[in-house]
Queue: 2 jobs
Job 1
Amino acid sequence: MKNFTFILFLLTSLISSAQIKGKVINKNNEPLPFVSIYLENSLKGTTTNDNGFYELSTSKKGKQTVVFQFLGFKTVKKEITINQFPFELNIKMAEEEELLEEVTVSSTENPANTIIRNVIASKEKNTNKSGKYKADFYSRGLFKIKNAPKKILGQEIGDLGGGLDSTRSGIIYLSETISKIWYQKKPKNFKEVIVASKVSGQDNGISFNRAADVNFNLYKNLVPVADTDIFSPISNYTFSYYKFKLVGTFYDENGKLINKIKIIPKRKNDRVFGGHIYIVEDDWAVYGADLTITGAQINNPAIDILHIKQNYNYESNSGIWALILQTIDFKVGFLGFNIDGRFSASYSNYNFSPEFNTETFSKEILSFENNATKKDSVYWNELRSVPLTKEEQKDYLVKDSIKVVRNSKKYLDSMDTKSNKITLLSPVLGYTYRNSYDKWSLSYNGFIDNIRFNTVQGFNFNPEVSYYKRINDKGNIWRLSGSLNYGFSDKKFRPVVSFYKKWNNIDKPRLSISAGNKLSQFDERDPISSLNNGFYSLMFKENFAKFFSKSFASVAFSKELYPGVQFFSSAEFADRRPVVNTSDYSFFKRDRTFETNNPIDPTSNTVSFTKHRIIKAQIATTINFGSKYISYPDSRFTVRSNTFPTLTLGYRKTFGSENSEFHSDLLFSRLEQYISLGNIGDFDYSLRAGMFLEQKNIPFMDFYHPLANEIDLTPSDRLSSFFIMPYYDFSTNDSYAEMHIQHNFKGFLLNKIPLINKLNFHTVVGAKGYFSGGRKPYSEYSIGLNNIGWGKWRFLRFDFVQSNFNGVKENRFLFGISLFD
């Protein structure tokens, strides 16, 4: 009886919902997806789904006019008389007839160029009309895969959530979002509140279809697409990147002349679109856009091509052309995956005269209403502005059923039994035992990933075992781990035990506790990785890393005090002892002699410090000025502002040693910022400064060590590291300052040179300087080529660097990898 009552209620809800519904097809009776459908003289509307079906909500009976609009097709206006709901209205649309002979050319200039110039001149006027508004936003994300591989790099990938058929094809991601958005042009503000969110096969239902992420505003000079700024075809400097051709005109349902203009990139490797843009004559506003861009142009090798389509509607009362529909289609080919994806978004119920007050906008730019991820099917059926296809309906039903099964203890235990089997390679590659239902795992890191070489230990092995426990899905976790490092040359064991705890994903309080004995580089930021140091030692007999031994106990705590304000603190007690080389082994150049382990004088066999015990404590805070944040139901993320810099301030104190001369006080700071300079590229800077309150003969590991580099690979932190500065030569116990600036022209220079522009290389220039008390300044200048590669695979970088210190210059070439840089 209860089931019957629920079904009756569901049917009643669906039947009684006031709506116009039907299907839209072309002349060949093929469905037209994402046709814009709205009531005349309003911005309230919907779109067709992939199969051409639509549902337009309305509560008004009697005569109404429904408008069907689709780029490339004649707009259809249909007057209907509604006596009861639902009202069925099926439409066949014909392709637009574009007429060039109606265009009157009043000058010798390309008529398309004249139109684009008028659009650019009218941008301020048109954007001021819609300078503030409220609107409803609906988005759907859909990823389909075809012939998915069973394994990647030897690892099974499973059935990808249960959406694959026998050919390993099907839907692997389906999500929907309903939200309300607020926008203000001056001062610039944007806010989104998600009313409902749903992901097929997931309990929490948190989709990532944010309105801000798909805000492809063509009126801006740069359009952010996949973290890359693309030049808009109506940017202020568009004629440096595009040519235009008027390919046709037609009249819309309001009698306005629409110009269809082909966008022709001057250089295909620039950050530019291809396709068409539609412009309203006299209003000089965007009527629609049909744009394409490749993965190579957005520096994302996983994407083959991305297709953006926009439709705008006219609101007669305000004279505003408002975006009502946007689709983003993309094809991905990566590691055997062939994925077709689509994000569709519709905007409705615009209010262009909202009343905003001081509380309308805040630092929170995204939030979720209570129970936004818990809405039932009745709610979605009533508010979903685009109907589901049968395939999408099936995916929800199947994955919701699978979800119940796969969250059960029986299923999770069966999957763990399969994955927990020990193989012959487990000791070499590592092994993890999982209990998925109780949310814990026990891991061993394997042999092959932990064999290293250095001249103090020779070959050394660092096996580690860790226990991980997830308390809940809100970020409450803890981990206990232990490692036992053994050097085959110095024949010493060095055990370390660590504990890590995080309480939540909101303000992210983290606690770390460690104790044991280990080798540490004098610059404990590890300026050269153990992998690189071992490679250069074994191949070229160069031991760049310098170590000391310490028995220690440490604790560290961090927390986000406020969105954009992070607090860090740490304390360590250490018994520090010098160590010396015990191995002279290398694969090649065995006649050479390794440097000693003394970072101050690598030719001396003496040690660089005397053994001692000391306590080191540090506090610091990082402030992201102008930052805002987004709030998910169980987490919060800071969104940094590029308009303002990020500042770090800190204080470090060493004390507790028997020798008071070893004690020190260090104040330090850092200022950094990324700035987009539009068509001429991106500019970054990082400034550091600090001072010891008293200059004393402190242990060398407590000096300030600028991040140096002596190998032929560019450092992983290119901005904050020196490219060819010798390790430890410029360490100081005095005041210091350093400057790092870098500018990536993003093709602004080379793409203007014939033939060379076909290579799509990016020019990167930089300058670095270091100043410390009692020492002449050190400087570096660099020029490099980035985005080197073939096709869309462009991840190589070469730099030429020249350093200058005390009148002595050094030149060097560096090689690096910059995937997705």
Job 2
Amino acid sequence: MAAKRDGPTAAVVVDPDGKVSGWSEGGRLLLGWTAEETVGRPVTDLWADRPSGLPENLGIGSDPTGVVPLRHRDGSTVDAVLTTHPLRGADGRVLGRVVTVQPWGRRPVIADRAFEQCPFALGVYDPELRFLWVNASACRVMAHSEEQVLGEKYRELFPELDDMAYTDRLSEVARTGEPARLITVFRPLGSNYANAWATSMWPVRDAEGKVRAVANWGFDMSAEYWARQRLLILNKASGGIGLTLDVIGTAQELATTPVPGFADLVTVDLFDEVLRGEEPPSASAFTSGDTITLSRAAQHSAKEDTDRAPGPATPVSHPPGSVAARCMATGRSTVELAAQPGEGGEWAFGPGLAADPAHWPPGNPLIEGSIAADGLTGRITVPLRARGALLGVVVFSRLDRPEAFTADDLILAEEMTAKAAVAIDNARRYSRERTTALTLQRSLLPQGLPDQKAVEAASRYLPAGTGAEVGGDWFDVVPLSGARVALVVGDVVGHGLHASAGMGRLRTAVRTLADVDLPPDELLTHLDDLVLHLAGELQPAGRFEPTGESGATCLYTVYDPVSRRFTLASAGHPLPLIISPDGTRTPVPAHPGPPLGIGGLPFEATELELPEGSLLALYTDGLVESRERDVDQRIAELLRALNHSATSLEALCDTVMDAMLPERRTDDAALLLARTHALDPRHVADLAVEPDPAQVPRARKFAVDQVDAWGLEEASFVTELVVSELVTNAIRYGAPPIRLRLIRDTSLICEVFDGSNTAPHLRRARAFDEGGRGLLLVAQLTQGWGTRHTTNGKTIWCAQALT
């Protein structure tokens, strides 16, 4: 059969009487009959089953419409296509006919029919891009018949459809002889929708290999193309929505992501409670008959002049019966399409199966001609819901584009809205927790620095940016006995409410230990034990969840304005920066100890003598940490920003924070600046006391004379009683050396030092006791009293308020 199918074409000459007068060699190869066996016989002897209506003289025309079965010499049947051509003499008389016989299965014949009936658009062009042949599908795409395009140049015939990428690629194939593939998007004639076409092009060569033509085929892949575009938009939404934990920012991301690929105008309206970080109202609180008032959180349009600039949300009301109110009440989306009927009066849906009304959810789409008055061709309204709560409503609108929304577009709009709803709800919850943590932290930080004369101080605290949680940074200024002052700064590990609560605990503990007048290294040791105990409490027990991380850093310093001694100890915290009055940096010969919560490791105290007017800078790591520079570079930048000659520490704080902190901060930052003062030597009086009770009157007289010299005669009586009691106790219960010191500061301070480490205790004497009333008397007559221990003894002090 292969020989018959691929055999040559037979040529038969038939005279006017219908008899064979000529027989080609192709006839013998095709049907097996020789010329001697066929010439002179009626041509109808070749029919295996003569088709009805076929005339005896083969007047069947030049374009047969069917297949004629012919009889092979071996008795088999050969299906063939017959084409007849009349033979005329010089006078025009018909002398006979030439019949061309081609087997139906032969490749040129079957290929012609296959290509003509192919559902893909097929075409052949000469090297100048003139049409040589097109099939019926290509004619439908071009809205032209084959007779109208043959011999015409593509670019001249369809200038409005000339896609340079397509025609240039055809020319390139004709020039290079290399096949090519291309995907083009264009709007066919008579269509309101842009279609995507996949096209393959290849050269057609002759026997010598010369390119004689260019052929191409193309098929409409609009459904696949637009499905891919929707996936790209959804992928863009996945990467572009929810980048920040900010309600307004997330709403703006939802508004900008679909424009212009999916919609031309997007609005996002939210309840005011959502914007404030509160719980949204219950869905049962309103019905479709209520006017719902929201706030326009975001709006973005393909036209830049209609974009809503970032700022406070503006109120928007959705009246009863409106589409938005109905969608929020029912929880279902609604698609509105402007009236654009097709050629037959039916609705003109977009490409793809999803455009079929059968694929729409119930109630959609609504054919709403009134939206055309607003310049809209379609609108999708989607309620914004997350975790069962209604947050607001989103509206996607198409303006001046003919493509209407499809059912697949509705799915995409709902997917983007659902993702944004979760992100907005997360931002709302985060905003609420952040506000709570920030309020807690600010309430635990000092609201104002205490009044004292040892240093001039100023401070700043800035929480992390909106994309990060509140941290556990803190600072404090604590007045101490002897006109001294403690400067403290610390940082709790972690973020959020737990870090704020931990910061409050540590700040309270530091103040308590500072009141005991512990040295810096000993204070940090006690604080380290406290953090270890807190870490044990943080372990989950029963059904309770762990409350966060443990651990902290702390820098504790003490400045004495009498001796100008500055003592410090660090638990894993950056050391302070000290700038002398002449602008040079004073090095701190110390190393930070381990962070709090490690346990078992010692802390070391370092003591410096500072010139009066030195500038101290205590800070947390959030001020100097950076991804672009190392810590040493950032500390150098901080030193450059610390202008030692600044007259206002408050202004200097602002300058430093502006210079060091970026707009998008990921960690809290605290800064405490202090300029040291020295107490006037004339406001300090010392007296060495021999361990003899006879020295008590001498000490009393020294104190009264000094108080009178300071012009504080009204304090003389109390001072005489206090000095008498404290010096007597030191001589009786203490150990030499004994020293009395009076300090005039914001209060009148009396200190008695002795070499014993035994601390006195306040007792309440009974009616007939002969002792035990001394310290009680001191406590009643003074503003405060206490004991502080040193390496070689202790100091008992008390302070009187000065009017």
